[in-house]
Amino acid sequence: MKIKTDIDFTSFSDGICNIFTLDENGERVANKHNNLGFENRALGFKRYFEASARQIDIKRVIRIPQLMGIDNYDFVEISNGIDNVIYGVKMVQPIYDSNPLSIDLTLDKANI
């Protein structure tokens, strides 16, 4: 008998983000993805200490719908109501046990 795993239903209702990249001159290129809903995720001990060992300062983890073409060289812009905060993508993790399929993005503060 096959053991069934619980399916996590995700609504992506914690906010809106834009995903973009920079060209070779460091200039912002048009957004790869606009007005994507996201869900905030907890930063677990394992992820935190693995990042600390590699001297990465993680600021937040978000879950977005599964889309192609997002990698560690991209940036995420999140509006907090007053201004826009830009984060760099440090890790992209596909999540296969959620509905709909999604990706967890580990983010740090970007200096651009």
Give a quick precis of the structure.
With 112 residues, this protein is mainly beta. 8% of the residues lie in helices and 45% in strands.
Can you offer a commentary on this structure?
The chain contains 1 helix and 8 strands, in the order βββαβββββ. It is mainly beta and 112 residues long. It has one domain. It has a 6-stranded antiparallel barrel. Strands 1-7 form a two-stranded parallel sheet. The chain is globular.
Low-confidence stretches: none
In which order are the strands of the major sheet placed?
2-3-4-8-6-5
Number of helical regions: 1
- Going by helix content, strand content and strand pairing, the class is mainly beta
Strand content: 35-45%
Write the layout of secondary structure elements.
Layout: E1 8-9, E2 15-20, E3 33-41, H1 45-53, E4 60-65, E5 75-79, E6 84-95, E7 98-99, E8 102-109
Parallel strand pairs: 1-7
Antiparallel strand pairs: 2-3, 2-5, 3-4, 4-8, 5-6, 6-8
Which features does this protein show?
two-stranded parallel ribbon, 8 strands, single chain, mainly beta, six-stranded antiparallel β-barrel, 112 residues, globular, 1 helix
